[in-house]
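Sample entry copied in:
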Amino acid sequence: MAANRAPGRYDVDPPKPRNDAYTGLLSISFVAMLIACLLLLIDWFSFPQQKPPRVALPAVKAVNVPKGGGDPVIKEEMKKDDAKKEEMKKDDAKKEEMKKDDAKKEEMKKDDAKKDDAKKE
């Protein structure tokens, strides 16, 4: 007992913590990790120590492309795509014209409404 402390409740040592289920789970997981590392080392050392020989790749031949371009099927598809783009441009132009016509119709309706109001007065 220390000489500079007053006697009292601090004279009794607190109880040591007990091992519970979590301590058991911790020890089981530690043992499992050790076994896994051991199996990994066994697998690692089972491989041969030398590197495999390099495999030579076959040479690639140059492909002759005709002067007119590549594959005729691809050319046809490109022509079809161009035709679709042209149709879409025409459709856009028609939509713009329709918007202008709708705007004109709205203006005419407003003018007619103003004329009707003027007649009623």
In short: DSSP finds two helices and no strands in the chain. The CA atoms of residues 16 and 23 lie 14 Å apart. The chain has a mean pLDDT of 83.
